[in-house]
Amino acid sequence: MTETDADVRARAAAALRRLSHALIAHEADEDLLERVATTADRVAADLEGQPPRQRDLLELKRRMFDIDVPDGGRVVHFDECFVSGPWNPMGIAIEVHREADEAVAEVSLGAAFEGAPGRSHGGIVAAIFDDVLGYLLTLRQEPGFTGQLTVRYLAATPIGQPLRFRARVEAVEGRKRRTVAEARVLGADGTEGEVVATAEATFVVIDLSRFRT
Questions:
Q1: pLDDT tens digit string along 53-93?
Q2: Cβ neighbours around 21 below 10 Å, total
């Protein structure tokens, strides 16, 4: 896929995410809803008539574990990821960057991720924690998987307000990486405010040479 193709795929996914949030957040008359349904079905049928996509796993491994991420740099993994992939039309599309040895993400959650009115669904918060904590393995160039994730919900996580998720490695025990993270509401000036949730996770590392094969 060329860079231009990738950009257009990301734009298409972003447009569908926008549509999803708009459909949840706004009233619409029957005619408009019918137009949305008809157009979406027609485009879906066009897509379903195209050849299946083949994901490049070697490129995925290279991006995740063979590239050093500088301080302040964006951390990436696979573009289809539900939490951070720009190509996923059903995703959250967070962006993660490196601050020293921490992984940090900022996001404002749209209406489609609402649980109780005005509040994020708890599963969305947990998914973001799992992803941001997992990025720590990318920073360390250590492939692995989530062994355990525990989330504590301290307050309502608001919809439509900037949030910051911050994660770090707490301890290294053999193949296990003990990690912690927190989510804070951001003020209008970008200052960190109330902690709305915290997380602890254990990741189990796979030998990098084995992963490459």
A1: 887 766 666 666 777 788 888 888 788 889 998 999 999 99
A2: 18
